[in-house]
Amino acid sequence: MFRNMTIRKRIMAILAIVYVVSLSLAVGGGYYVLRQDTIRESLEKTEIFSAAMSSSAKYLTSAIRPKVQEYLPDTYFPEATVGIFMLTTIAKTVQEQYPEYIYRIASPNPLNPENLADAFEEKVIKSFEAGEIDSWRGFVQREGKEFYAVATPMVAGQNCIWCHDTPEAAHPKMVEQYGTRSGYGYALGDVVGTRVVYVPTEVALQQAKKKLGYFAGGFSLFFLLALIAVDRIIISSVVRPIEKIVEVATDISRGKMDREFEVNTNDEIRALADAFKRMKVSLAKAMDILRR
Ligand code: HEC
User: Fold this and answer.
1) Overall domain count for the chain
2) Structural domain for 105, as ranges
3) Is residue 269 domain-resident?
4) Rounded to two decimals, what is the model's pTM?
5) Is there an atom of ligand 1 within 6 Å of 201 CB?
6) pLDDT tens digit string along 221-244?
């Protein structure tokens, strides 16, 4: 394919191939690195978010709930006694400032229908139940957007049973609020749900794509300038001198023996011109001999 091309076109074609290959390698590699970066960043955010949430829940169960139960033993006051109630409420407040950050406590058997596990959450809970994994992290689509999610299991302990065992055992006010349809029947040690933090990757990935776009633009501009420079060099130091040698050689072959091979560089073209000069001298001598 290259054989029938002029030197200039051949070099340009090779450089174009180098450009395409190196640009795709650089953009592909860059995207991979930036994506890893995005994962790391999202992971840090989800860890901080869920640590803050778990700490609030711990504070409720260790500092508030015992006092409430001591001072108001018969009162149903979920805002101060149900960790999950507090967490879902805090999550909603956080969402007012960061609408795309989602914190969910999901269960296939919820008291509150808002907490019903979706297909993804149900799959994760099944894996927890089967003991395949003890936490799940990765990318997941939610309502058409991509999120980085970290899910951890929720296991029923002794202190969960009094609300989630049977409607008869639970506080009547709670049953009145949530009904008896679902959310009960917890047994000790069961995986009853999952805590999931969803952090959007879209924004970070879009920034990564933008950075890559700038890089590809800069790289292309640089390559274009290099291409133009190389083209100029090829024309001035290879194409033009060879054309000149061809022209002089053609003239000499037609008998214009006064033409001279002139080269003002000191390279392969000069060597070629010198060889032609010597050939011209030999030719002139041979013609002299023939003429005599
Ligand atoms: C004082 C009663 C009470 C206790 C104790 C309790 N929960 Fe709940 N739980 C609730 C209520 C009320 C909700 C509904 C919160 C809401 O409206 O978002 C709930 C919600 C949940 C949910 C979300 C799904 C759903 O049912 O809406 C899970 C999962 C859950 N609890 C697990 C547990 C676990 C595990 C424990 C023990 C560590 C526990 N609960 C202890 C009352 C309780």
Assistant:
1) 1
2) 18-208
3) no
4) 0.70
5) no
6) 999 999 999 999 999 989 999 999
